[in-house]
Amino acid sequence: MSYEQIIAPAPPAELIFGDWYPGLRSGDLRAGRMTQALLLGVPLVLGRKRDGRIFAMRDLCPHRGIPLSAGWFDGENVQCKYHGWKFEPCSGQCTEIPSLTKFEILDPGKIYAGAYPCEERDGYAWVYLPEPGSGRLAGSVPPVPELPKFSDRYRSAHLVADLPCNVDHGIIGLMDPAHGPFVHQAWWWRSRASIHEKEKHFEPIPQGFRMSSHAPSANSAPYKLLGVYGEPITTTIDFVLPNRRYETIRAGAKWFSSLTTITPVTASTCRIDVIAAWNVFYNVPLVTSIARFFGARFVRQDQETMIEQAQGLRFHPALMLIDDADKPAKWYFALKQARLNGTDEHPLTGPVTLHWRS
Q: Who contacts 161 (Cβ-Cβ below 8 Å, separation ≥6)?
């Protein structure tokens, strides 16, 4: 069954606003062109001005509600197709209303279309979506998320997949440590026969938690590749609200890092984006193409499982979270609820050790 054949999406999830989300690949933005996107149920139009700056606007004209993407963009101003109103896209300020005459006192500069902070980082156009109804942003916003890098020379790759589930299911699937031998069975990764007991140490970090630095799983072939350098291998995994999983693997001067995000498209659907960078085998020909091929297969396995899970979620079954393998999922829900409630409560008061088999 394909994604498109699933008629009823998973139940909606409450969404976290007031943070940065990857809107789309920044390489898709060209000067003088507009591109549509949907984030957290908010219709957006993104583009790149002649000076190279990128922008994200709410894709609705404040006059009569027609999508601004139906109009024109000359590299400086976005013009509405309905009545020709023009807007500076980075600020959203109206610069012209063609129908005005000298007999009217309306000041176009006091009218604003919705415009959101938008920054280019790691090949993405990141968009900051404030709380609904909060008005235009007058203060500062938090830093744009960025993939950690540990040398000036490195290679990188991006992956993306749509998921027919709400962001909560996407995120707890992302952090689930027990599905690997079943969902990701492959000669180059691991098999069901490779299952053994794991002991991992976790610690609280702001807005998230960390799987402390440790030797990676011996039953995962990609990690073994770093062994050719003869250096001890360590990996650290962070989860940070609202939707980010950072993984860093180090072997002396060699490293691999990834940032995976599960972004709500609507309250019932989401998207997985992966940016990875590395200096391992930097001079090996086609290494980026090979990494992208196997990475895409890995993400596709998760996507296919989520599509199959969505068939069951249509019937709104009662679900379970167990210890210890599901403890990170419980932490996520507690952190999210604290964020939504505006409190600084953290489910971890100190280091915790978990055990599971995978």
A: 271, 272, 299, 300, 302, 303
